[in-house]
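Now read the record:
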Amino acid sequence: MLNTNIFRQYDIRGVVGTELTEEIVFLIGKAYGTFIKRKNLKTAVIGGDARLSTPSFKAEFSKGMRSVGIDVIDIGLVATPVLYFAIWKLKTDGGIMITASHNPAEYNGIKMNIGLKSVYAESIQEILSLIQKEDFDTGRGSLKAYNTIDDEYMDYIVERIHLDRPVNVVVDAGNGVGGPYLPKILRKLGCQVEELYCEPDGTFPNHHPDPTVKKYNKDLIAKVLEKEAEVGLGLDGDADRIGVIDETGEMLYGDQILNIIARDFLKQNQGEIVMADVKCSKNLFDDIAKHGGKPLMYKTGHANIKDKMQRENIKICGEMSGHIFLGDRFLGFDDAIYVSCRFVEIMSKSNKKVSSFLSDQPKLFNTPEIHIESTDADKFTVVEKVRDSFIKEDYDVNSTDGMRITFDDGWGLCRASNTTPVLVLRYEAVTEKRLLEIKNLIEDRVQKFL
């Protein structure tokens, strides 16, 4: 039986053996192949992460595509950004990455592209509908392997990064697929690199592969302090999300990483837009304007961000979640390997410590993401009711993605997750007391409509 819940907003993801089986992956391959063929497209590149089910899933998805007439190029075990690079380099019409990103080991999933655009939202539902109707094309596609993409990708980055001095770095790849790339690139650039968990292992034996959560960075923090390194760089399971640890062992969040890169970018690019999602700090948006950029707040979600970026030719974007997108000197997709190198390049131009990069900003108090359980059927309605109630009371409400209320001394966010049955809330204020007041105001209203 096909569990339709695996067809999510941005990708397909489920538990291996129950929600995702070889038979189901084959059908999704047929449906995706049919979907792109009916757009007069005929070629796709496929890669996969290190999860134990990935080789068989990759084979079945490829077989499904070929059964409807798509010509397939297999690039093997790669990071997600390398798959994106391959679409560009090999000029294929489509691209498939078999990965469950930072999900636990029992999961796997599928990220789908047409060119460098993500297949998401309604398009994923169209692919589901093709399976439900058994509405598939027929044909006989070809299969060939392409084995040099890793070196081409690494060379492409090395040619575009210029360090003024060597930097002492620790890399924790979390046993994901970024491990074979980032340390090698940094050494080619002249860095001193200490490796943690850089061997791909789909059982993730050392820690959960999510560098944006502090508890999963314990070993990276310890190693940075032990080695007196200048920075620690963490990658998630498929290497499209970055985490950064400064020399004191403190963690930088996605909006802070974007802020540091934006400051550097704006030195040569005054007046350019810098886009960030609604979960990011007021400090980021204020700082972009202060340094001559145009801040733009936009919807959460890597597919949403990339779509907006491509449509409006925006060069630098990011999310609180650690997805950072650079079209400046790069190709515009979320790539934690390349972003890590850009971060190190910025460090090399300065003798300042990472902990001092944003030390001139005001001290703000904020919460991590807070999740309140709802249902997929109700979550958007609840957010709409909460938003409308505050609008009626003349609060300053931004409705870009759910609602973000701005006060003179803080802000609060309430939005529906696009991937799970929860409401996502986050708060920031100039004092801890005010933070609690904003939190209570919004959560009391949420409980009223739940």
About this structure: DSSP finds 13 helices and 22 strands in the chain. The chain has a mean pLDDT of 97. The domain at 151-356 is CATH 3.40.120.10 (Alpha-D-Glucose-1,6-Bisphosphate; Chain A, domain 3).
